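Sat 14:20. Reprocessing the chain from the morning session after the first attempt stalled halfway. Input below, unchanged.
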Amino acid sequence: MPLIGEYAKRFGVYDELPNYLSYALGAGETTVMRMVTAYSMFANGGRRVKSTLIDRIQDRYGHTIFKHDARECRGCDAPVGWKNQPEPQLVDRREQVLDSMTAYQITSMMEGVVQAGTATVVKEVGKPIAGKTGTTNDEKDAWFIGFSPDIVVGIYIGYDKPRNLGKGATGGHLAAPVARDFLKLALADKPAIPFKVPAGIKLIRVDQISGMRAGPGEGGRTILEAFKPGTAPPDNYSVIGVADADGRSLQPPPDADRSLFRPGTGGLY
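Finished this time. Tokens:
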């Protein structure tokens, strides 16, 4: 629990997480703003994001006197106009709250929630979306937090004085459709940009039941999983009782997963 509490505080979900095991499963209460801010850090490659209601303030002469984005922009000032100079560079010194590879693995898992889990209704958006549904005991609260590489949305449905929302009132049935309708409009004119895959991550197709690396020709039961260096399933292995006509163990060729790697070009906050 101490480690879970540390991450809950690091992501801003709770200021101090009580040391009860049930809190690891979401028994505590938080706010939509805190949850959306936490999820935005997954979309941002694990870097800290601070929520705000004000992006920028300008005076009557158009001079910026405050801006929330504290990233340094080298080369953004061009007093003499465009002279074919190099593109400006954003210098991001924000805290790395979570390892970028871990952040992507979590994002990849939550893409699975949309593609084949409790939030399949969000697939109708037609763009890369990751997210997670949530339903409390007795169906009193329904949640969905979802995100693309550039936007995060949080939906909470419930009564001011908690009571049952009705039979089958889950996050997937109540909250996710609201997020779907919002994201359809918000991303209508945006290209379908995949989430950025950090250097070092390997995308490998595995059997969704056994977790073993999938062989050539395997289809229906396979999923694409993200692995950190040194954690991928072996390229070859022997399965007791499975062999070819000559008695040799069946093995996928070394390049069986070569076509499954994709670089990803998703933008970060």
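Residues 47 and 106 are 14 Å apart (CA to CA).
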